[in-house]
Amino acid sequence: MADTQQVQADQKAERKIARLARQIGTFAKAHGGAEGQVAYIGERGARIVLVGEDGGWGDLVAPTYEIAEQAVAKSGIATHESFDGEFAAKVTTGPYEWKRMAGIQVGG
């Protein structure tokens, strides 16, 4: 019984890894390539931050840090250890982001 449950859990993890890798690949294709960074977010798992060559950005959430790392590796994109200044500078922000950031500052 325990072996069956472990096999099912492994299969579920593999499906999740494959799905995330496809989503990362789709993002990279739409943005002329991409780079990423994986960040642990506690019990929720891990956040995969993606930055496209065109400055577009997005993120995905994986149930565990290990699944996130495997999905990023499977997708083949370059990764960064941290979201440092050089990496962050590649992000292009538009009117929506500026308005949203200003709203946060004034309590919006």
How would you characterize the overall build of this protein?
- This protein is an alpha+beta fold.
- Helix content is 51%, strand content 21%.
- It has four helices and four strands, in the order αβββαβαα.
- The chain has helices at residues 2-30, 65-75, 85-88, 95-105, and strands at residues 34-40, 46-52, 57-62, 78-80.
- β2 and β3 form a beta hairpin.
- α1 (2-30) packs across α2 (65-75).
- The chain is elongated and about 50 Å long.
- The protein starts with a helix and ends with a helix.
What's the count of strands?
A: 4
The average pLDDT value, as a whole number, equals: 88
Counting helices, strands and paired strands, the structural category is alpha+beta
Helix content: 40-55%
Number of alpha- plus pi-helical segments? 4
Radius of gyration: 16 Å
Encode the helix/strand succession as letters: HEEEHEHH
Based on Cα principal axes, name the global outline. Answer: elongated
What kind of sheet is the major sheet?
4 strands, mixed
Given as residue ranges, the uncertain stretches (5+ residues, pLDDT < 50) are none
